[in-house]
Predict the structure.
Amino acid sequence: MAATASVTPEQWQRARGALEGATDRFVRLVESVDQLETLVTAHWSVADTVVHLVSVAWWYATKLDPDHPPLPIPGLDARLPTVTVDTIEEINDLILLHLTERSPQPLLAQLRADVGKILAITADRDPDERLSWFGDARPTLAGLFSHLVNELLVHGWDIARATGRPWEMPGEEAVLFFEVFTVGVIRGGYGRLLDTDVPPRDRPIMVEFRSAYCSDITLVLRQGVVTVADPGTPPDVRVRFEPATLNLMLFGRISRVRAALTGGVAIRGRRPWLLLPFLRVVRTPS
């Protein structure tokens, strides 16, 4: 699908401010933790999680500045175009294997430096600029910012939950993942990212997403291909969401039942059961 202009000046400034703010909160959160070996997911410690965030910011800095030192991981660039949502964990494992530093001070210093460079060198760039990504997807520049913001928010949540610290996921920041990154990738082309063995359905599924933090968006899954519907398209499913709850649900941090019971995600519409087959294709790593 051809890429179209989609990022508003307000979204771009919000993405830039969110990246700066979320980075600062994440660094302060990690600095408050005494035991970096504490497990925050089934396999990652606090320190591993910080390395993961460092690797994402580092990779983005190299994409935006050709003179930035590349990630020291042999064969990484050749593998990235074939990555799917279901195999991205293998790339994360490869990165953690090669990036052996686990001391917080140098890691956090690099995270701050790379985010600072990303902000500085993009101040005058077009937020609708398309860049290569995992699986040959083509997010916008603003989409990269939005993805990194979400990484900081979700992994900050992991650390805070495991260590008993407070953590904020403001709706105006969390919504960027859906509003700018996800919608932008679907409009610009998502390559192999959503490749799946799930047989395509003959009947299209139309899901409308509504939130107080963004305009209504309807996504259509038709014959295994996801597109953004024209305004006014009647949906099968209506999903009203609080951005932080939706993101935590999509990334497997909370269950769909919990998301519904807390009111963070409400499902309505003519055929609400069609959300399940929709999410088997339109999915994120969890």
Remarks:
- The domain at 205-281 is CATH 3.30.1050.10 (Nonspecific Lipid-transfer Protein; Chain A).
- Strands lie at 205-211, 214-222, 225-228, 237-241, 265-268.
- The radius of gyration is 18 Å.
